[in-house]
Amino acid sequence: MDMPGGFEVDGAGAIMTFRGYVAWRMAWLGIVLLPMSSYALTWQEALRQSERHAPELEEQEHALAAAKSDRVSAGELPDPQLVTGVDNLPVQGSEAWNPNRDFMTMQRIGIAQSVTNGDKRAAARQMADANIERTRREGSMVRFSVRRDTLIAWLKLYFVNQRKSLLDQLDAESRLQRSALEVALSTGRKGVDADVQRVRQIQAELSDRRDELERDERADRSSLSRWVGREAASEPVTGPLPPYLASAGHGSPGLADHPDLAVLRAREAEAQAAVDMARAGKRSDWGMEVDYEHRPPSFGDMVSVQFTFALPVLTQSRQDPQIAARQQDLDRVRAKREAVARQHTEEVENLLANAALYAREMERMDREWLPLKQERVRTAQAGYRAGQEDLEAVLMARRDLLLARMRRIDLEEKRSLVDAEWRYVTSEGKP
After folding, report:
1. Helix/strand/coil (H, E, C) string of 343-375?
2. Digit-coded pLDDT (tens) for 343-371
3. How far apart are the C-alpha atoms of 6 and 40, rounded to whole Å?
4. 3-class DSSP string for the chain
5. Which pLDDT belongs to residue 139?
């Protein structure tokens, strides 16, 4: 009678095979430990973790808070000034330094207020608003950069694991083949010794390749930990790959929402506000002062009111050069924005070309190359069993298949990395 887990019971009693016992124990442990197992790191989870752990995003939050605080006081009038002193105090004669004997001597206290012209205050508010927008756009740019770099790090680690998995399969096959050859060698079969040496050489090459992949995995996991934290980066990466967005049929999208260009537009608004501020310098600022003046008891107190006006009369050597300088800054930012737009347009076209190339190569690999390599392995193995092929032909066919499979992984990685760059350049997959 058969029991679950591979146990076998006969009439003499329960006889549990070792394999069945192990299978039963592993299944039991899997049920018990399943709730305790750590989560696997998908690419979506990696992006979520990066937005919680990246210090660059916290830095941008502080910068935005500071810009909003600066906006509160932008365009406000200067603080009023308290004015106090003594006017017309004698310093010579019998009444020197006596504030109570001369009718002209007055103790003065008052308030003075400078009034910046309205255009300057409006330009200051405009500049503060542009500063907030620029800081917000810079935060968006940093967020896109963090997401892009996180996704790239996740993809590299994912494909390193794919290569390791492929090597595991080949290594297992090589061990089985070596064991079979060593058994044949122990039975005195002729010509097997050279085959054993070839298999050992293949295993050594696989070991070297594995060491390289172990190094790459450590480096890629370290890179991923920068964005998602060490604990999350230690989890196995799993799940499906991100969907491909870049394709030849997608067309060349508009770049108006690209974070780099959005930042430059905000900087252009700041530069325009600076031009307006410089132009407002041609308008006069003014001020007002109100004083109460106390005189000796035998004389009446007084009140004084006075106004002051700035006189921008030398504009050719003062205001005009400042206006010209700020206008040059504005033109420079506009030229920079145009240059960046053209650069990103070129990047988009190159990314589309590469995406199309890798897609065609992947399709050709799946449709032609891999089936051909697999058929060659089957033919070589059949010839080897029939004594028509030597082991060298089998090993070479398997090596070609290994290279083809590695090439397939390389193409898929390149295709995915292109798509990660596409998400940033075109602002698709927005956070």
Report:
1. HHHHHHHHHHHHHHHHHHHHHHHHHHHHHHHHH
2. 888 888 888 889 999 999 999 999 999 99
3. 30
4. CEEHHHEEEECCEEECCHHHHHHHHHHHHHHHHHHHCCCCECHHHHHHHHHHHCHHHHHHHHHHHHHHHHHHHCCCCCCCEEEEEEECCCCCCCCCCCCCCCCCCEEEEEEEEEECCHHHHHHHHHHHHHHHHHHHHHHHHHHHHHHHHHHHHHHHHHHHHHHHHHHHHHHHHHHHHHHHHHHHHHCCCCCHHHHHHHHHHHHHHHHHHHHHHHHHHHHHHHHHHHHHCHHHHCCCECCCCCCCCCCHHHCCCCCCCCHHHHHHHHHHHHHHHHHHHHHHCCCCCEEEEEEEEECCCCCCCEEEEEEEECCCCCCCCCHHHHHHHHHHHHHHHHHHHHHHHHHHHHHHHHHHHHHHHHHHHHHHHHHHHHHHHHHHHHHHHHHHHCCCCCHHHHHHHHHHHHHHHHHHHHHHHHHHHHHHHHHHHCCCCCC
5. 92
CA-based angle 428:223:159, to the nearest 5?
70
State yes or no: pLDDT of 3 exceeds 60: no
Is the model's pLDDT at 1 over the cut of 80? no
Residue 22 has pLDDT above 70, yes or no: no
Give the angle 17-20-26 at the CA atoms, nearest 5°. Answer: 140
CATH class of 38-88+102-425: mainly alpha
Q: Residue 381: pLDDT band by 50, 70, 90 thresholds?
A: confident
Token pair for 221? 């996991």
Start and end residues for every CATH 1.20.1600.10 domain found in the chain: 38-88+102-425
Question: What is the model's pLDDT at position 179?
Answer: 66
Distance CA 248, CA 263 (A): 28
Q: How would you write 180-225 as a 3-class SS string?
A: HHHHHHHCCCCCHHHHHHHHHHHHHHHHHHHHHHHHHHHHHHHHHH
Among 56-65, 126-135, 194-203, 209-218, the minimum mean pLDDT is found in: 194-203
How is residue 6 annotated by DSSP? G
